[in-house]
């Protein structure tokens, strides 16, 4: 009934408000920006980047008018990360999550999935958590259309390079999709420069190095970069405690070492062998 549907929508709205109420201030800042533009969230490990992604996925899945055609995709570079992030998203959202990677035990390989299997997946799940190669193959075979996707999350997006799978998804499918039908892009990274090749001229000009590499990631993902001051996140980071111990540089005189070692050497090399009994 209309009344029952209205009650369900009200319940979902209250759940979302409760979830946002538990969010940290910088998470809400990133979420509000990501609702309106493609964004790379550059925050330290342990600051809750996946939580921001879950807020965004929830928002688009429950506020889009095309309720029958809402799909979010969360890409992670390894099977282990896929499993880890799928658990987090399942706990953070009320949406059905499907895991897709090439190392799933007790199931047919993803590469063997036909049209019927993909239809079942897309009808049953609203969030696909997958390795990028799986999604690229599905896009190439037309089993997923870019216009079907509302949110496209790139985990560990600092790995993006001009010819890797992330960039192929963006270059071959996102860029060719009609602008009004493109998904919201959300990148996650704790170190946006990690793994980037450092050219000779970059070593001579570190500022140019940083700016050019950041611009490369922004260009490939068609996104702006979000970060915040360390003061806002410091209380949420488990930084190791460090201490400095200074070892004395004093070395005893050589004569002292000889006096200590010589008796032991005499005993070791000239003592009689034990007799057999």
Question: Key features?
Answer:
disordered N terminus; 277 residues; alpha/beta
Give a description of the structure.
47% of the residues lie in helices and 12% in strands. It is an alpha/beta fold and 277 residues long. It has a 7-stranded parallel beta sheet with strand order 3-4-2-5-6-1-7, with helices on both faces. α2 packs across α3 (49-63) and α3 (49-63) crosses α4 (79-92).
Short description:
Helices cover 47% and strands 12% of the residues. It is built from eleven helices and seven strands.
- Number of β-strand runs: 7
Which term fits the overall shape? Answer: elongated
User: Roughly how many Å is the radius of gyration?
Assistant: 28 Å
Q: What percentage of residues falls in helices of 4 or more residues?
A: 40-55%
Report the sheet-strand fraction: 5-15%
Low-confidence stretches: 1-12
Please state the average pLDDT score.
Answer: 81
Read across the widest sheet, the strand sequence of neighbours is 3-4-2-5-6-1-7
Class by helix and strand content?
alpha/beta
H/I helix tally: 11
Biggest β-sheet description: 7 strands, parallel
| End-to-end distance | 99 Å
């Amino acid at each position: 009934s209309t009344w029952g549907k209205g009650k369900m929508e009200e319940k979902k709205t209250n759940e979302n408000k409760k979830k946002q109420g538990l969010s940290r201030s910088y998470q809400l800042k990133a979420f509000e920006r990501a609702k309106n533009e493609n964004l790379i969230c550059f925050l330290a490990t342990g600051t809750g980047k996946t939580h921001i992604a879950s807020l965004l996925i929830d928002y688009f899945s429950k506020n889009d008018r095309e309720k029958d055609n809402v799909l979010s995709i969360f890409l992670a570079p390894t099977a282990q990360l896929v499993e880890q992030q799928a658990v987090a998203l399942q706990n953070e959202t009320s949406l059905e999550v499907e895991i897709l990677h090439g190392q799933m035990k007790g199931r047919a390989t993803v590469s063997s999935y036909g049209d019927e299997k993909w239809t079942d997946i897309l009808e049953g799940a609203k969030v696909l958590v997958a390795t990028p190669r799986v999604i690229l193959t599905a896009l190439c075979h037309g089993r997923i259309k870019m216009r079907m996707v509302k949110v496209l999350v790139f985990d560990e997006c600092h790995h993006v390079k001009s010819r890797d799978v992330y960039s192929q998804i963006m270059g071959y499918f996102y860029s060719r999709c009609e602008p009004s039908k493109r998904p919201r892009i959300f990148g996650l990274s704790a170190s946006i420069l990690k793994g980037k090749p450092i050219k000779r001229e970059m070593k001579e000009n570190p500022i140019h190095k940083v700016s050019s590499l950041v611009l490369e990631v922004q260009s490939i993902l068609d996104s702006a970069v979000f970060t915040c001051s360390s003061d806002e996140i410091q209380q949420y980071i488990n930084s190791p405690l460090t201490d400095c111990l200074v070892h004395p540089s004093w070395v005893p005189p050589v004569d002292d070492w000889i006096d200590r070692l010589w008796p032991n050497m005499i005993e070791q090399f000239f003592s009689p062998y034990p007799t057999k009994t």
